[in-house]
Design a protein that fits this description.
single chain, 241 residues, alpha+beta, Arc Repressor Mutant, subunit A, Alpha-Beta Plaits, four-stranded antiparallel β-sheet, 8 helices
C-alpha cells in the first residue's frame, strides 16, 4: 500500500488547491448526479447516493447544492446528463493508469484524454489493456487527530477491513467491496473524522518509480486530473522518495 499511500498524500495536498478552484465541488456534484440518475433520488434506498452525499457534506458543500443536483438527476429540474467512462493507458516507465470520467460528450472527452496522455509522455491504450492489473476496493480516509496506529488498527480489523496505512495527518483504511459500507458506518459511529470514502481501483502489484521518471509521471497524472471531465485517476506506481 506504500505507493498508493504516497500518492494519496500528494493528492490530499492537491485537494486543497482544487477546493479553492471549485474543482472538488464539480466532481462531487457529478458523482451525486450520476448516483441519483442510476439508483434514484432517495439516499436511504441508494447506497451510492448516500455515500456521495456524505462526501459532499464532508467537503462542506451547501445542502442546497446537493438538493439541486439530485433534482436535476431525477428530472425535477432541467440539467445535464453525464456518462461514466473509464480510459486506460500507460505513463512514463510503463506505469499503468486508469482514468474515470463523467462527461456529457464522449467524443470530446476521449480526444482530450488521448491528447493529455501523448502530451505528457504517456500512451492511451485499448479497453482492458491495464484494467486487469487493478482490483476494486473501498478506501476510507480518516483524519488522524493524534490517534495511535495500534488503536486504529484494532478498530478497523475488528470491523472487517483489509488493511491500514498511516501518514502524518491521516489514516487510510482499505476494505473489500462487501465490507466497505460496514467499516465506513462503524468508523462514523465511533466518531472518527471520516474525510472521504470511495470505491477505487487499487493496483495488485506496485511498480517502483523515482527521480525524473516520477516527476514526469506526476505531471501526467496531474495534467489528466486537471481536466473538468475527470473524476479519478489511478496508477500502479510506487513513488520512491
Amino acid at each position: 500500500m506504500s505507493g498508493h499511500s504516497k500518492w494519496a498524500t500528494i493528492r490530499r495536498k492537491k485537494a486543497g488547491i482544487d477546493a479553492k478552484r471549485g474543482k472538488m465541488f464539480t466532481r462531487l456534484i457529478k458523482e451525486i448526479t450520476v448516483a441519483a440518475r442510476q439508483g434514484g433520488g432517495d439516499p436511504d434506498g441508494n447506497p451510492r447516493l448516500r455515500l456521495a452525499i456524505d462526501n459532499a457534506k464532508a467537503g462542506n458543500m451547501p445542502a442546497d447544492n446537493i438538493d439541486r443536483a439530485i433534482k436535476k438527476a431525477t428530472g425535477e429540474l432541467e440539467g445535464t446528463q453525464f456518462h461514466e467512462l473509464t480510459y486506460e493507458g500507460y505513463g512514463p516507465g510503463g506505469i499503468a493508469i486508469l482514468v474515470e470520467v463523467a462527461t456529457d460528450n464522449k467524443n470530446r472527452t476521449v480526444a482530450e484524454i488521448r491528447h493529455l496522455f501523448s502530451k505528457n509522455g504517456g500512451n492511451m491504450g485499448e479497453t482492458g489493456s491495464v484494467a486487469w492489473m487493478f482490483e476494486r476496493k473501498g478506501i476510507i480516509t480518516v483524519k488522524r487527530d493524534g490517534k495511535p496506529e495500534d488503536e486504529m488498527m484494532e478498530v478497523v480489523l475488528d470491523a472487517g477491513a483489509d488493511d491500514l496505512s498511516t501518514e502524518e495527518e491521516f489514516f487510510e483504511v482499505t476494505a473489500a467491496l462487501e465490507s466497505f459500507e460496514t467499516v465506513r458506518k462503524l468508523l462514523i459511529g465511533k466518531k472518527f473524522h471520516v474525510e472521504n470514502a470511495s470505491l477505487q481501483w487499487i493496483a495488485k502489484n506496485l511498480v517502483p518509480v523515482k527521480g525524473e521518471e516520477a516527476e514526469k509521471l506526476v505531471k501526467l497524472i496531474e495534467g489528466i486530473e486537471d481536466s473538468d471531465e475527470v473524476q479519478n485517476v489511478f496508477s500502479n506506481a510506487d513513488f520512491i522518495e
